[in-house]
Write a structure and sequence with these properties.
The chain is an alpha/beta fold. It contains six helices and five strands, in the order βααβαβαβαβα. Helix 5 links the parallel strand 4 and strand 5. The longest helix is centred in the C-terminal third of the chain and has 13 residues.
Length: 123
């Protein structure tokens, strides 16, 4: 079973939860992981099972990057807040760099998430 990681900055968590709710039927076909707070928000809105891997600022982004390195993640949806600074920006950059180096699809907004989910369905 393919795995999708779901991550969102605080200002985008509701947006990701709404996106996940809209795509609930499709997402239910995959193993879902995410940073802890994002996972809880998605579970609360959708009822989908999303494994929390720790909060982003406390290393959750790095744990997801490690799973990318171990080929355990097939796609990442990371709705970022570009209007705010983030204390753990180094971790975010490491996750993005890891995705690029390991050819792991990474969506940073809803439109790219939509397109990538369609692509995953057709893969």
């Amino acid at each position: 079973m393919k795995t999708i990681a779901l991550i969102a900055h605080d200002a985008r968590k509701m947006d990701l939860a709404q996106w996940a709710n809209f795509n609930k039927e499709t997402l239910s076909k995959y193993k879902l992981v995410g940073t802890s707070t994002t996972a809880k928000e998605i579970q609360k809105m959708t009822g989908l099972d999303v494994e929390g891997l720790g909060s982003g600022p406390a290393g959750g982004d790095i744990r997801i990057a490690a799973k990318v390195l171990d080929d355990e993640i097939d796609m990442i949806i990371f709705l970022i807040d570009v209007m705010s600074s983030h204390a753990h920006q180094v971790d975010i950059d490491a996750l993005i760099r890891t995705c690029v180096l390991h050819h792991t699809p990474l969506a940073l907004n809803r439109k790219s998430a939509d397109l990538m989910l369609i692509g995953m369905e057709n893969d």
